[in-house]
Amino acid sequence: MYRKVVFASFVALASCAPQRGRGRQQTAAQQVAKIPQGVSTATDGSMILDATTNVNGLPIRFKVAAPADQFMAASGVPGAAATSANGTMGVNVLLHGDGGDSFVKFPNQAVQANTMGVVLLAPNDNLFWGGGSGLQRTDGVEHAQAVNDFVKNVMPQVAAFDSSKVSFTGVSGGSLLMSGFFIPAQMQNFPNSAVELNCGGMAPQVDVVDPATVANTRIHFQSTQSELKLLQGSIPQSVTAYEQIAASQGLSADQINSLQTVDNTPTGGHCEFDGQGFSSGVQTMLSSYSNVVQGGDGIVQGIGAPSNGKVTTGVVGNENLKFVGGQKRSVDGEGFIGKRWVVQDEGDASIAKRWVVQDEGDASVAKRWVVQDEGDASVAKRWVVQEEADIAAVVACDRVSC
Where is the signal peptide, in residue numbers (predicted)? Predict the structure, then answer.
């Protein structure tokens, strides 16, 4: 009887909830489009150029952060002085996760190890690199080609850089595109490169064009103990696949371990490398990027316990990562507007089930729908819209329909 009552209440909630925002729901792309493009200042005083270009028929919005004098004179950046695309700085190109949080936050904007930061926005409504959803990245081939062509054809028009020093970073869904499509299909265009795959990874989904180049690419896989269930399977598969590619090219175990490393020591959920949150966790990894994949000591400052800070453990013999728990949901929202439905058993008969809709990227605007059994004889139900940052901002509806 109780289950029927709760289900009926949830149906009533479902019919009620959409009316609150009907006609106002915007796609991830529409929300990011509200953020003005142009020139701004990076956290380290560098300049940021935010603009949109067309690559193979796809609209690619991008941000480039570098010292002003490294921008091409025609870029429109104040202080731009470069007259040739041939520069001395390296480039770290970041692909955000589903929803675009890391494009908005731009965690690699500060110059590290003479490397400028670049972030690209996925060219679709959901802001999913590779399109599709979960591990099915249906536009992976097209998007990987677009990333390659942006670096090769657009970047020389924007800033002066050393084309032999281009590295990459993936975050969540961006790591899926990187590991599944970009590395196997495009890495021959970036020899002696480095890739940091944060909270995501899968085995190559296309043929490996140049195994020798892939084998000599510096790759680091970073996860957490409570990674998403979906990725708890695909990340170890990715680790094993790339290790096997290196071995097939004659690299010894020691050589492989010097090039390919893996870690999931921190407690925490998806991308919560600092044990605190998604955005702050990603920033933690990117703030120590040069330490991890550009010849540093492998120490990540601020990484969550119980890690001692050093994350560069060789992959050989460490392919089978140990996970604890993890959410049973697909990679469907990096955090900017990523939504999720959660069914929880609260362990309390008075609050048996809870349906939750959350904006995971910003707790200050997180919303929550709750169905509760209040534990009294009337079995009263309550639908609550809760502003997470302000517990007083609660609207209750103590009836069957709103």
Answer: 1-16
